[in-house]
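Lab notebook, page 48
Experiment: co-folding of the full assembly
Goal: obtain a model of how the components sit together before planning crosslinking
Operator: M.T.
Materials (sequences as entered):
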Amino acid sequence: MKTAPRQTRALRRRAADAVAQRRERRGGRPRRFAGLWRYLAVIGPGIIVANAGNDAGGVFTYSNTGAKYGYSLLWAFLPIAVALIITQEMVARLGAVTGKGLMDLIRERFGVRWTLFAAVVVLIANGGTTLAEFAGVAGGLGLLGVPLPVAVIGSAALIGVVVMRGNRRLVERIFLALGLTFVSYIITAFLAPHLQWSAIGHDLVVPNLGHPSSVPTGAYLVDLIALIGTSITPYMQLFLQSSIVDKGTHEADLKLVRFDVISGSLFAVTVAMFIVITTAATLFSPSVEYPHGLAGSGVASAQQAASALSPLVGVHAQQLFAVGLVGASLLAAAVLPLSTAFVICEAFGAERSVQSSFADAPLFFALFIGILAIGAGIMLIPGVPIAGVAIGTQTLDGILLPVLLVFIILLANDRRLLGRHCNGLAYNIIAVTLATVLTVLTTTLVVTTVFPGLLGG
Amino acid sequence: MIFLSDFLRADVVDIDQKTVGSVRDVIVRMGEPYPVVTALAIRGRSKELPATIDWGAVRAGESGELSLNVPTSALQLHPRTDEDIWLARDILDKQIVDTDGRRVVRVNDLQLQDQDGKLLVVGVDIGARGLLRRLGVERVGRRVTHLVGRDFPQRLISWDAVDPVRSDERSMRLRISHQKLSKMHPADIAEIVGQLGGRDRAAIFASLDDEIAADVVEESSEEVQAQILARLDDDRAADILEAMSPDEAADLLGDLPEERREQLIAKMEADEAEDVEELLGYEDDTAGGLMTTEFVAVPVTLTAQQTIDRLRELEPDAESIYYVYVVDAEERLLGVLSLRDLIVARPDAAIADIMIKRVIAVPIDARPEDVAAVIAKYNLLAVPVVDDDDRMQGIVTIDDAMDEVMPAGVRRRARAL
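Observation: model returned without errors.
Model output:
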């Protein structure tokens, strides 16, 4: 007998998958329905991924937007929806046509140096998002009376177990189910007292480019970037393309993929909008002044964010909010470090599998454990503001998104790669505009932070 | 050692020491056993210069500089052909199959070697050292490892042992090298295929014959199977399904959307299609869903010699040859003979006399766990499946039964041994 070769990713996934399917079978589902599931499997990644955007970072950022700005930032959701659809469609198309992940393509097309650069960007962005997820876990469990250290350490340990023994498909389904909890915001909006629909309609379509005098320029930029960054996360793009590749989606399925991406994006943006509307109706007060910095969050705590749901469930608002937040955050906190370690190892050709030993896959484990430990560790620092961390990391995502976006645009224009499925002109215009807007916002933010007096902030 | 990364971006000077440009890529022609460098692609200083020049015009490479043996004005354009492979564009950073290590690796660098005046691609660097070299910090890495008192090993694999995964139009030409792949064990090919993207996968399947492709599909996970099938056209998919054992083919078809399933069954040969459709009628988590219809059953009236002759005629598959089932005219199960019983028996002995009459069989709606338990208890290689009237419908082989009860991870790990 030869020595055992290292366990690979394919092996592990295959194994986990086989177990899942065995379990499904035990349920006694007759074979003929399996076809339907396969069919549903083609559509799905888009919806799941778009809703993964409504995680801890998303909920806090949207709540913050509503509480701080009322309806006046609602207009941003229309361009965000368009940009989200365009970005996700490019990524989905790349995955379906090439059958490869985003980091793979960056490595193959741009070489080692650019891959290293992209890997560092992904690491920072996803590390930040993981931190936001732990903030969500801490906040949600805090509402249920669990002390913060117990919540954070316990969930980090739980994630270790889930990752070693869990299976991806199941995780995705739970993701989807828990993402739906936040649909309750839509219902709440209709129950909320003094909701001004005409004002909402007006603010939705008429861009309100100035910022309220109660918020300094720097803080306004931070919030705006966070709003874009949490709606179009770098992590979502990586995850979407991997899911599409894993599902084996074919070029011929591009129409279905588009439908999936568009409906997923619209759904996610709708939920996001209603979080803003609901919090605006319950928490917004034009007379409150917000200082710059983490202390100036529109929602100071999970408790406050949760109270936006009280028109729907009254005293149970805390519990409903906590369940949705903990579920979504916990799963994202498990998937993020894992998939980040994965794509980076894949790009560098390093050994990667949770079944191999540390000695066999040192980079993989170092990344996975490192991201998890830093995310959980920062939350354990006494006095870290939960809402502030959750929103701040989304600003970071927004700042780093253009980098990834440039790679995506270049790849989606590569004729050798995509052939006739290359980007059209309209795509390029919208995508480049998004990248430019974010870059300009980021630059302005940096400038106003360094020279506070410059824009009269 | 010479590496491709030493060449890339190196300056090119002509015989008069005038700078011509820098190296953009190194062009090779596939050769056996090693690809031969035929030309350089140049990123030129001026528009008039040829973009690709023959390797023959290159004299020697010194540190970071290549000098030519002709003046710039005498440079000829190297005609581009379909045979050309551009190393940086087509091989570097791509995934490649390491046929010795049976895995997919990424090309960090390529090792070149001068042999009788020809420059050959002899090795593929898959290690961290190659990565650091690409980043221009190989020396730093070496110093760090020296500090801890270790060497910084090169991780090179020979070009002999790699199989380029090429999925664009050129892949057809590389079919020769895919022979290496098709000599591997199907389970190993399946493992490699599982690590590749859709296009690359399709390229590999295009180069495998139906029998091997069928084995590879059988060895793949259900998820990968569905992905493979999604990339194949109907005719080819039907050919591969025919070559698969009916139970595996039925499992796979059962997971497809109804429309595609019917298209594929319609394209299959009538015999195979019938077997598969029959198996599709059983529920997944029963002995019926688990069994294969490929087994050997003989009438009770034969002698040992006649039975052996029948076996020769039928040429049954490996998994169904060990037991010969004895049935009456209504296909009711009467007894069983092992291959051993047949061989040691006198040729003229009636099988009715030598067969084991107390056959262990399972009903068609038995649960998979129970089937596995029966096989384990009686130390069987396969167990017959009978309907309510004791008529034989198929067999469940030990491997399929074990698949049902053993944790998948354990099973796969065992297979890798």
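Interpretation: Chain B has four domains: 2-81, 91-164, 170-281, 296-405.
Next step: discuss with group before ordering constructs.
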